[in-house]
Amino acid sequence: ILLLTLSVVASARAQLCEPDAQNAFKVRLSIKTALGDDAYAWDANEEYLFKAMVAFAMRRYSSKSTTQISDVLLCNVTDRVSFWFVVTDASKNVTTVPGSEVEAAIRMNRNRINSAFLLSDKTLQFLKITSTLSPPVEPSTPVWLIVFGVVLCLIVAGIIFLIVAGIQQHKKKNKESTERENLEEKGEVTLTVENGIPCETLDLKAGHINGVFAADDERFTSL
Amino acid sequence: QAMEKSRPLWDNPLQFVFACISYAVGLGNVWRFPYLCQMYGGGGFLIPYFIMLIAEGMPLLYLELAVGQRMRQGSIGAWKIISPYLCGVGVASVVVSFFLSMYYNVINAWAFWYLFHSFQDPLPWATCPLNSNRTGYEEECEKTSSTQYFWYRQTLNISPSLEVSGSVQWEQALCLTLAWLVVYLCILRGTESTGKVVYVTASLPYCVLIIYLIRGLTLHGAVNGLVYMFTPKLEQLSNPKTWISAATQIFFSLGLGFGSLIAFASYNEPSNNCERHAIIVSLINSATSIFASIVTFSIYGFKATFNYESCINKVILLLMNAFDLEEGSLTADNLNEMKDYLMATHPQEYVQLLPQLKNCSLEAELDTAVQGTGLAFIVYSEAIKNMEVPQLYSVLYFVMLLMLGIGSMLGNTAAILTPLTDSRVIATRFPKEVISGVVCFINCVIGLIFTMESGSYWFDIFNDYAATLSLLLIVLVETIAVCYIYGIRRFEKDLHNMIGRKPNWYWKIMWAFASPLLIISLFLFYLTDYILTGTLQYQAWDATQGQLVTKDYPGYALAVIGLLVAASIMCIPLGALLTFIRKRLKRESISTV
């Protein structure tokens, strides 16, 4: 009779863990995607570890929880590696812990569970439990503003430098031309002038060089 | 005694050639030519392209350079010398250049924006941002891709349609101001500063293109793109649109009719060999287009292969999860057999899954032809985010875009400033730094329109309509003026004086007959195309669907388009009319005296 009751209890418990059962969750692992050549095979030991982690999560979530490893039931393990699990309540006979509690417990300890299996949120998926995605690291000042500021300062510095240099050049030219005018009035410098243009400028490339008449290299006679 | 102010000159002919190359080689070579090549027959497109280059590109370029070098004035002064009735042509050129500089610098602002955002790891357009309660990604980003989301939402913050103007985006306004400051720095001192800058803006893009060529050709899947795009589809040669697109591309790629080439050439020494330079510049421009399209196609191939393989991996994952198959049992190679096997063994579940199973096709990915800002900012950034060390390639690429854009801007602003500095009225009162500053400031303020939420739509209006018809008409009038009003014999003599030899029969035939005929046919084609299509439409971004939808332009937008086209074209007859009236009045005042 003892054997009978034990087997009845065992089968009743087994019925708790079924695909789409109440309070049951499907888990999917992608070990080969995550680890490549270092992938481990999924066997009974790994299943034991999983049960232990779930029990650990339940205990950590609620201090009065007394979940044992044997309370976590796994079933329908496939080659994918995916399976369903359910957490039974030892105190009340043959019932499962409400799914919301399990969900909260897993969510709280997701990091620990992931690292136990060397996986991440994407490769160890609890299908009904959405994970909160970690926000990207945002620096206090956006990076682009810093680069913008640097470039802006360089450009403005360049503009100011060129403008100031231009003004100084302009002043120097004005001073030179007034000096030259003063010297001309005093008659001390004989300036050769042709059509109102001082001859020095004609020698520079800024003058008009008429290629057709370039044959003779006449010197302009001084006045 | 006032010294006669001599005209500033380029330090050496190389600066002039670099300036022309820097101006002609612009964003169109990178984002328009590859698209045309792909749409109109791949490798076969090169045939009409080269024919048009010889028939239209080189002669018209030589013409403009010769006119500028001979007259030694900006566009307004040069055409006034050719015939006083033609001053309107010069004014029309300046008006078109003004419109162009208003909207073109916005591209540089966008390039700056992307450049500044390239200094992050990971790149901001590589992943979607999280939604407010951090359970998933932003909805709009989920529907489309992260690169498109970054462009439409985080860069442009685009509104659903043209009518919804929205507010000015301060980030874009800042970048636009910076872009104008950079342009001002380069043109501040006239040819003195421009001449030095063009060394960089002309040569740097080639360095980057070479780096990208090496990187592009070594990317996984690049060969797919190259083979698919370059295999000639010669049947496209019978399509008239192919020839029209080739002619249009050559025409606009060289930047004829804006007055920039006349402005650049006016700073030449009169004995400069502009014939040789015209041939060199046009050949380099076309060679750059082809070079850029090789790079673009290898990038396309990489992106298409990457997307295709992601698609296949998604299908594999879906099947594995649905049927709980072992990892690694489904691969790209055995996918088709496994699909048949699964259909046979689990028919009901397979049928349920069928709508989610996408048919992945490499050809479909390669066929997505993109041009314009979409290519430059979306497709390329998508390819870059998948490369190794994406920050480096991103910085290089956007610096190249900046160089290309600024090089073209230098030409545009030269086209506006040279006539202003040539005119005695303005130049004697204000130094050229002030004139340049005022022009840049006005353009920057007007350019703020393009930084609004609907700015991208206005950008498209300006891009498509501000220059197209007007330029064709301007260049047509230019060619006819030089050949028939000024006289081709007089022009021959001028060229002989300048270069030392007369142009041969090829140039004369092209100038007198071939090029004008080509331009007239292009003009007529575009006119009939606009008239036949009725209402003009544009692509608007629909945030709820995550894709572009076609909408009609509202009434006032059509009015603006009409105004843009009319403002420049009307200058030509108005100029002639004004000169006629002025001469009449002078004759009357002389006769009464």
From TrEMBL, chain A:
How does this chain sit within the bilayer? Single-pass type I membrane protein
Where on the tree of life does the source sit, at the highest rank? Answer: Eukaryota
**Localisation per UniProt entry:** Cell membrane
**Record-annotated membrane-spanning stretches:** 143-167
- One Pfam family hit: Collectrin
One GO CC annotation: extracellular exosome
Q: Where is the Collectrin-like domain positioned along the sequence? A: 21-223
Q: In its UniProt record, which GO terms are filed under biological process?
A: positive regulation of amino acid transport
Cited InterPro entries = Collectrin (IPR042944), Collectrin_dom (IPR031588)
| Coiled-coil ranges (or none) | none
What protein does this entry describe? Collectrin
Keyword terms, alphabetized = Cell membrane, Glycoprotein, Membrane, Phosphoprotein, Signal, Transmembrane, Transmembrane helix
Automatic annotation (TrEMBL), chain B:
Primary location group: membrane
As one GO molecular function, the record gives: L-proline transmembrane transporter activity
Q: Where does Na(+) bind?
A: 24-25, 29, 253, 285, 404, 408
Under the cellular component aspect of Gene Ontology, which terms does the record hold?
apical plasma membrane
Where is the protein found, in the record's own terms?
Answer: Membrane
The UniProt entry, under PROSITE patterns, shows: NA_NEUROTRAN_SYMP_1, NA_NEUROTRAN_SYMP_2, NA_NEUROTRAN_SYMP_3
Matches recorded under InterPro entries? Na/ntran_symport, Neutral_aa_SLC6, SNS_sf
Key words of the record = Glycoprotein, Membrane, Metal-binding, Sodium, Symport, Transmembrane, Transmembrane helix, Transport
The membrane-spanning stretches of this chain are: 12-31, 43-63, 84-104, 170-188, 197-223, 243-267, 279-300, 395-417, 438-459, 465-488, 509-528, 556-581
Its membrane topology is listed as: Multi-pass membrane protein
An individual GO BP term: glycine transport
The similarity comment for this entry is:
Belongs to the sodium:neurotransmitter symporter (SNF) (TC 2.A.22) family.
PANTHER family listed in its UniProt record: SODIUM- AND CHLORIDE-DEPENDENT TRANSPORTER XTRP3, SODIUM/CHLORIDE DEPENDENT TRANSPORTER
**Under what name is this protein listed?**
Transporter
Where does this protein come from, organism-wise?
Nipponia nippon (Crested ibis)
